[in-house]
């Protein structure tokens, strides 16, 4: 039975990837804002709610949304003018800036304000203490990625040296991490949703902690555009951000089942009850930003986490890569 559950979950993941990669929600309008999202995730519920509830249309914005699968692909799309706006981790703007970009990527609206991964235990624990990880085999995320940086940061906050106190596995591709754990690798694993909840529902694993809650506010997923595009299309981006803000407030205020029904169309073959479970978990822990304004303390926390992981190419001032005027205009 367990093997059947594993096969079902893996097949579901494959179906989702195939279906979503082929999707675009653009109107083909000549004035559309072309948005490249780094992945398709329930983590981005306020964006999909803004689309489904017609908030972009209310603001006169035509949206052409495509999924580019991965930070490198997303930033290549933005920097090569294949997209006007990228939905991706704020750390990527720092990497681009550090390469002396003449037209840097500027963060103008925040979508999520915490890490979106969870610590999943193979065994059901009556209570959990981070010391349980000492001496265990921990299946982490790939080196250099934001989930890995946050994961190691949280371990250190809880008195655990990730490279000394446990057996850390980081050589498995992102897409294969869930199947590796389901097949018996690791005592603990760091997983995104909906895989974490799927595993818990099926009895394959048990969520024992949230990396997002432990790491504090971080501009984990933001909308960014090239500096030249912002100068040219500031009013259009303000309208875009007003629509997003409506979506953020709507997700924060509506019953979970209503939110799930509104966004399930973006997740073909995903059960609406599962979507509701994930929305509830993310909303309860405050992962969804309720305002598009990226705060300076969150920016500082991002650079602290990157620096601690040895991945910060240089310190960058908040005012250098964060445009606050668009979000401030949209929320006033």
UniProtKB/TrEMBL annotation:
Record has Signal as a keyword: yes
Domain SsuA/THI5-like, first and last residues per copy: 45-256
Compartmental location: Periplasm
Gene3D superfamilies: Periplasmic binding protein-like II
PROSITE patterns documented for this protein: PROKAR_LIPOPROTEIN (PS51257)
UniProt keyword annotation of Metal-binding present: no
Keywords, ordered alphabetically: Signal
PANTHER family, alphabetized: ALIPHATIC SULFONATES-BINDING PROTEIN-RELATED, TAURINE-BINDING PERIPLASMIC PROTEIN
Family statement drawn from the similarity comment of this UniProt entry: Belongs to the bacterial solute-binding protein SsuA/TauA family.
Full protein name: ABC transporter substrate-binding protein
Organism of this sequence: Halalkalibacter kiskunsagensis
